[in-house]
Amino acid sequence: MERSAFSKYSWIDFVFSVIGVCTFLVDWASDVWVATEFYCRGDLLWFSVLIGLMVLSSVVVQMFSWFWFKYDRELPGFSGRPGAGTVMFVDRVKLCCLLHVLQLGFLCRHISAIRQGFRVWWRKEEGSEYAVYLTHDLSMLRLIETFCESAPQLTLMIYVMLSTNKARTVQFVSIAASTTSIAWMVVDYHRSLRSFLPDKAKQGWGSSLIYFLWNLLLIAPRVAALALFASVLPGYIGVHFLILWLVFVLWVWRQRTYFMDSVAGEWLYRATVGLIWYFSWFNVADGRTRGRSLVYHSFITTDAGILLVTWWCYRDPVQTESYALPLIITLPFIYLLGLLFKTLYYCCFHPKLWRPPMRDPGLPADLPDAEVSFRDISIQDVTLSSELLNKRMACHASNFYSEEEDAGQTDKTSKAESPCL
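That's the XK-related protein sequence above. Prediction below.
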């Protein structure tokens, strides 16, 4: 039986790429609008915090994009043609560097994905594998942007609403939309990552819905608890974040991740994972997945309980009388419901339970990536002359869906054949 290395690029992928660009531009415009509102009202502190989050998120995303670009161009097949072609390649590298310095590298990756997707889907040209690869890169960059910017901004919005003790309908709608968007981005990344595991069953709409619900039900009360704590002890939320972030970064380091191709890049990745863990669980290493997840959720549940109790003790009884009791009861219930949905997902809806892996007996078990040939390369448009191995995504997919998670469905040789080693 012939084994397909990747999912084929479809019109749905192209539509999602276009939507991704539109979402990026709308998100950027809305951030500028909110920052302008803060500035015009004289709320310089909140204006500064919002601008700081925007700059931090943009810099982190551009750094990841640049690290990946440097890694990709050093792979076999990216050297360009001799003579004028080599000069053109060097010029494109310089242009790419300038775009990243100007914080435009992420946008250009979106444009490259649309361009490549249009060639594959509409013109029926080759490069379907690379188009899928581009969409996955963008999916992870959007996930990083979500937890570097959207999640902290959502916390800030709730904090502002609590601090001013004023809530308009548009604020509730905006908060609900932002929370839903964060949960959806996690689902989008999860679905994208599975496309690099051809032996795994595809995630259906029912499975995606349950996955979305448990992420929504876990992220929403976490953000709310942080905002409530900040509303009574605003000077300590930074200390709280710094302590937990350092603990999480140390935990990532102890798991010996090898996602990036350089030491600096790997520490950037570990620092980013520490930030993501401040809001949501994100598996980064092979083996003992259930144990790590249990430790994480136990820690976060305890921390959230401490945050809520602190808020209850320091709150203004008069100002919070209308919503204090409902919140202190509802938030823990929602989080526990999210844990229940997560358990339900892995027991009944995880795709591995629906279809056993189908593989050629002559191929290594559960190899998550394969050598593919490409026409174009992201921001740089260099003609490729040989096949490439997407080691970065193969490694991450292999770790994200560890052997323990799919116990009984993978062969032990998969670890020996892992591109991470």
